[in-house]
Amino acid sequence: MDLFKIALYFLVYPGLLFLFVYSTFVEWVDRKLFARFQNRRGPLYTGAAGLLQPIADFVKLMAKEDIVPDSADKPLFNSVPVLALAAVLASGLLLPVWHFTAGMQSATSFDGDIIVMAYLLSLPTFAYFLAGWSSASMYASIGAVRVLTLLFSYEVPMFLAILSPAVLAGSWRMAVIAEYYQQHPLMLLWNIGAFAVAVVALQAKLERVPFDIPEAETELVGGTFTEYSGRKLALFRLLTDVQMVTGAGFLAALFLGGFPGGLVPGFLWLVVKTLAIVFILAAIKAVTARIRIDQMVSFSWSYLAPLALLQLVVVILVRGYLP
Amino acid sequence: MSDTFVLPVGPQHPALKEPTSFRFKVDGEYIVDADLRLGYNHRGIEKGCEARTYVQDTYLLERVCGICSNAHMTAFVQGVEKLMGIEPPLRGLYIRCLMGELERIHSHLLWLGVAGHEIGFDTFFMYTWRDREVVMDLLEMVSGNRVNYGMQTCGGVRRDLDGVQITQLLDGVAALRARTPYYLNLGATEPTMVARIAGVGKLPKEKAIELSAVGPTTRASGVQFDVRSDDPYAGFVEHIPFTIQTDNGCDVLARVIVRAKELMECYNICEWILRNLPAGEIRVKAPRKVPEGETVSRVEAQRGELIHYIRANGTDKPDRVKVRAPTLANWPATLYMLRGAYLADIPIIMAAIDPCLSCTDRMAVISDVRGGEKVWDWETLRQYGIEFHRNRGIKP
Amino acid sequence: MSLKIGAMFPEVFRHLFKRPATVLYPFEKNTVPARLRGRPVMDPDKCIGCKMCERDCPAEAIEIRQESETKTDDGKVKKRFSMTLYVDRCAHCAQCEEICPAKPDKAVKLNDFFEEAAFNRGALKIVYK
């Protein structure tokens, strides 16, 4: 029975099948919201109300010719999308949705899994860099350098921001943090600053406007993904969607009180809370322009990092004076 | 330490709406040097004009560019009218001016959207183009077409306005007048947008005059140059009130401000014309053959000063037509602005002059290493093309 | 003016509840104005065969051919002409309509048909007999 549950966990929910299907749904929601913000309709005809459009795009890309440039570093070029997708799918397994007990540690919910999750979510960024660097194209090289500069600016504020709820809850385990906030919901308000920083940093990690600098279409053609086509590009796009789901789930587990109640209520809470974060991300995407890389660096080190630090100080003081 | 490499932008690039070949020497994120090659959109229209009658040429020159189509038609038709020695009646002149201003509204709203898209602000692009549909519908109602209106002819305009159309035009212009200040406001208060356009693409006033920039590009550097006030045509200044709009910012934000101010001025001009249209004819009969002579005709197109030179030889076909588009005059200023800028600013600096390659193109003669003739005729060119492709294994 | 973070957000949020501005062409169509520059249509009954439209067309899209010649009762010769219109060359400038001297009604007029795309070349050559 236990083996069956583990197989279900890894392959169906929240494993492969759930991540694949739900990430296409989240992409549909994002595209529809973005379109409605702009007074357009968004995907409309594939499936009911365009629900199958992301899947149709994926299938179309899989069917296209896969061209590898002659001077590209072939082993690296071919393996990077798969490795990055594997890292992001693995991070999805750490979300505290079901099959854990707060008292006992298990393979998918253990002390310090917040750090492992953050680490797994930053592996794709290195994958983007390697993708651009191994492409041997000058647009891709500039894009790759920008990816690392972007990482340098948002990663530190993001890590500081996700530490705040952990410090307040007194644990490094996501399931325990979520349960703490389920029992003391008002404590969530102490983390508002960190939530704002984390959402902005997540937008930067996902490389969406205003931070889609590495893949700036009007400047660098395709940025890091210029030379990718066909199946590998399909995997990169799937990777972005899955990263949105797991990143939103990560923030929901830390800042919005997790997914209580077991299998079915936990699933419903997951959907509601991740869609709430996706709404915020889509709103940020709709109302801003793309900023320059030097402006990004100065913005994050002048505003994001100090705000995250301040939030950490506040949380430490609150923790110290808690009854 | 020079780690520069050459980054090609174009001929095909998402930042360019039309093909141009730029070669940037880039050092990290800085542009050290910029070089430009034109000629990718050349269609031989000036030569084509010599084989067609004046009436046919009005339609051919209209299609030099889709956005400045009315400006080209006006410039040509004005020049031919000068050669013929005829003048359109006042009502025709007013409607000619109205078409020019409506086209300017459509072009500036289009430009606002394109500038938004170049800096990644797609929502701004969608909203300005949604509002542009109002003026496109008005143009379709008046002329029967959304672009390439075919309204101007030697001797006046071809279609008249009736009372219903005038009311609808006034309503449309009033609706646009209510929406435009929102976009100007947004351009000045949205932090990410201001970060991208303020202080970018600086062109000091002396440089603008020295490099002979025209249009809103130079008016944003404080230069008071506008053909509508310097060399009035189509009833400007003499009958129709007009004030020149400038700004002293010298950067892309100033160009946004100048174009937004010009939009408001366009609404004023359109409303004045619609309320003060005199009764009468809209055209006079023009002869088929044009007496000998040559003339220069200037018009303030959306992007700046547009010049048509026409030489007639007494027949019904022109001897020579030369078109100098405003974008051609703005390229030296753009290259000046690009040197020393960030790589990320290339699209917005190029978009800020509102480039229209279709109007601009010239054949560029690259020096022939074989030392052959400087002028090739049609047969030589064709043979060269066939040989070129045969050498690469492509059968003609 | 001072900078406002998310300056466009109120407007953008309001549009979530408004009807989209997109027209679902080809299932919904906008009404076209009365004098749209559509396709030239020729009426052979009215044409007098002066060929001014063929001469003035800037795109060489019109060919006028004589189809028949009949003698009427009072000794007059009545010629009948046909027009071949190359739709893929037509620039919709309406110069043919403007120059047609036929009285009291012009022989060439532009209708309001604008969906000119076709699946084969043959459909783009129209003969009005």
Total helical elements of chain B: 15
- Strand adjacency order, main sheet of chain C: 2-3-5
Distance between the termini of chain C: 68 Å
Shape of chain C: elongated
3D structure, described in words:
The complex is a heterotrimer of chains A (323), B (396) and C (129). Helices cover 68% and strands 0% of the residues of chain A. Chain A has 323 residues and is mostly helical. The N and C termini of chain A lie far apart (43 Å). In chain B, 48% of the residues lie in helices and 12% in strands. Chain B has 15 helices and eight strands. Chain B starts with a strand and ends in a 5-residue tail after the last helix. The interface between B and C is medium-sized, with 31 and 26 residues.
Summary, kept brief:
Chain A is mostly helical. Helices cover 68% and strands 0% of the residues of chain A.
Task: Supply the key terms.
heterotrimer, A: 323 residues, 68% helix, C: 129 residues, alpha+beta, 3-stranded antiparallel sheet, 3 helices, 23% strand
List the helices and strands and how they pair.
The complex is a heterotrimer of chains A (323), B (396) and C (129).
Chain A (H helix, E strand, L loop, with lengths): L1 H10 L4 H22 L15 H10 L11 H19 L20 H21 L4 H32 L4 H10 L8 H14 L11 H4 L9 H26 L7 H25 L5 H28 L3
Chain B lengths: L4 E5 L11 E7 L2 E8 L7 H6 L3 H9 L6 H16 L5 H29 L3 H22 L8 E2 L2 E2 L5 H27 L1 H7 L7 H6 L5 H4 L7 H4 L21 H24 L17 E9 L2 E9 L7 E5 L1 H13 L7 H7 L4 H4 L17 H14 L5
Antiparallel strand pairs in B: 1-2, 2-3, 4-5, 6-7, 7-8
Helix pairs in contact in B: 2-3, 4-5, 4-11, 4-13, 5-6, 6-11
Chain C lengths: L8 H6 L25 E3 L9 H5 L5 E10 L5 E10 L8 H5 L8 E3 L14 E4 L1
Antiparallel strand pairs in C: 1-4, 2-3, 3-5
